[in-house]
Structures are given as structure tokens and as C-alpha cells.
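note to self — DONT lose this again. spent like an hour looking for the file last time. sequence + predicted structure for the chain T wanted, 424 res
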Amino acid sequence: MSLKKKSMLMILLMACAAFAGCLGSDDDKEEEEDDKPAWLDASDGGYTYASDVDNHRSLMNDLCEIKDAASSGGGYDFATAKDIYMNGKNAQKDDGSYRTLAGFASATGKNHDYDDYYGMNGSVDAHIMAALDGTGDFNGTSDTVRYQGTAKLTVNLGMVAYTLHELNAAILKAEAGNWGTDDAQHAWDEGWAFFHGPDEHYGCSPAKVMEKRAGDFGTADADGVAATFAATEAAMNAGLTALQNEDMQGVVDARDEVLKNLVIVYSQAVLKYTSKMDSNDTAEKYQAEGYAFWKAIEAYAAPHMHDGCYNMVVGHKVMMMGEIDSSACDAFIWTNGSQSTDENATNDTCYNTVNHMVSTDATDEAGCEGYSSMYYMDNYAATMMNNVLDLTDSSQLGTSYDVTAWLQPVWDHYGITADDIGSM
């Protein structure tokens, strides 16, 4: 064979090898795509992702398996539930490790209000671990109560914290000029992944809670879609569009709308389960559910609830005063409430000159003077809520509570109406 022919043969063989290599790469790529679960498609629940958040969405399946393990059907296997929570099972990353629910919940510096409110780093994790271990707020409680805490706290407190963190992270990235699909839009997508997750695992998501509570309170449309979910879905889509258009106000408005609807749905849940605590058979279960749903919004609700002024003279009663500081408790005066100009008119009213409220408990001057800034009670209504939902206090059971008055200032703050809440 001539040298020229040998050279041509070698070139042809090299070309075939390269071509085969290309074919091999395509086969590998196709195999990788085939390995991807069908449920990791481009959208979930009416929201189409702008970036790859498959790993984040896979975390929702951990919630389903934690719930199954910790349930009565799973033999109240809190050890397995804890293992999945701490070590992960379904959200495997490229390096072979697993994304975990505990990893986020215990992290510091996250963009939510829980750690500041509770005065501790990793406050979300602390609440969940107490349910898993039967310690803290769950010390000495039954398996039923621990199951409700485990199932409801991981889904609601945990994933709502994840969601709000990501929406706030998206805003911070956008403020720094990083609007793209690898930055702000990616964080926003993660927010929906944690709130809704894959359609196939929707039943284990906070979004599912919206559907359930809308059924309880008559706030679903004719097709059964919760008003809270429809508003949240619309806000998430609007927020993503705003990020794509570099519209900061649009992003902030969308985040605020999501938060408002989270407050609505968890208010509905707290109203429902505190009202059912008079049950003869399942009061502790309902108390535990109310507790978990309350923890999902406490950090965002309590700062807007009534503060109180404690009266040392009149039966040691506390008057709810709205959002005040301690000085308002010094501002009560014994005066002529009728404002009569009659020279014989007498003082008959304990009136507060700061917020113009009248104490119906203090019926004489001595009682009116019983209020003092020394006994100012910050977040008094939130304290009462936590007393009702004290899982270690069985005396709270057997009573149906209407906590509407405690939550009303919260609804006022977020612009939530009676129609938004609905009725059972």
C-alpha cells in the first residue's frame, strides 16, 4: 500500500472514531435525560421555572417520607424521620451528597424573621428537633402530638421559612444588580420549589394547606382553587416577570403579596384548630396542629398584635392596648367621660390620652391609677396565644377558643379583610 493511501486510511479511521465518539456523547446525554424523573418537568402548579431547581424540588419528597415514618401507620418511627430530616434522602446533589431540611433550618444568617424573633440562630431547626426528640415544647407529650409537630412543622414552619428566605434573597441579589437566571431569578424559582414543589408531591407542600383551609373557610372558587393559592401563584409569576424586566418595585410587591397570603392561610388554620380544642377525644391533636401552624407565622404576626397594660389594683387584669410602648401605660387619667360642662359633673372614666381607649375594668380613681409602665406587657396577645397552645399544659384542653380578636391587628397590618379570612 502506498504511503499516500495509508495516510488517507488513517485519516478516515480517525474521522470514524471521532464520529463514533460524538455518537457516544449523544447516547450518554440521552441516557442522562432518560434517568431524570418525569415529574421534574418545566413547571409546577402554574409556575414555569426560569432556571434549574430540580434538586430543590426533590426535597419535597423528603417531607412526604418524614410524614409517613412519623405517623401511626409508620409506627411513630421518629428515628427514621429524624434521619431523613438530618441526612436527606431524595435531593442528591452532583457531588453525591444530599440537600437536607436540617441544613437550611439550622443555618445562620438566613433572610427570614424567625431567628430575630425567637432570639436564636437556627430557631426553625430547634422547633422541628423538639418534635422529633420529644423535648422542649414537646417534652412529655404523646406520640400523637409529636407526630403532628413533626409533620406540620417540617412542612409549614420549615418550608415557609425556606420560601421567604429565597424571595428575600432574590430581592437582595436584584438590588446588587444580579437579575439573571443564575442569580435573582434562580432564588425566586427556589421559592416556588419550596412552597409548591413537584406536582406529584404537592400533597406534602404548604400550597396544599391553602387548598384545605379554603375548603374549611369557604374561600375557594367554583373549581376548588383556594383564593390564597390563586393570589400566591399570580404573585410568584408577576415577581418572576418583574425580575426579568428589572422592575424592583414589582418584585417587592410580589413578595409582600405572597407573605400576606401566607398570613391568611395560617390564620385560618390557627382559628380552626384552637376552636376545636374542646374535643373530648382529640383536643391534644388539635392543639398540636394549632401550635405548628401558629409557629409558621408567629414571627410575622406577633409584632403586630396587642401589647398590654397590667393593672395591679383591679383584679390583676391586663388591658389590650394595640401596638404601644410602655409609656402608654402611664397615660391613664380619671376624668369626666361625658365631657359635661355641668359644674356638678363628676369624673367617671379611666381614659388613656395616648391611644384614646377607655378601661372598662377600672371603675374608680384608685383602679385607674393601677396602670403603670412598670407593668407594660409587650406582645401580650401573642403570649396568650402561646399559653393556649402550650403543649405541656393539659389545662388548656377542653375549651374552644376564638382568637379572632388577637389576630385582628395582624390582619389590619397586612390589609387582610374578613372576606379574605372567610368563615367556618
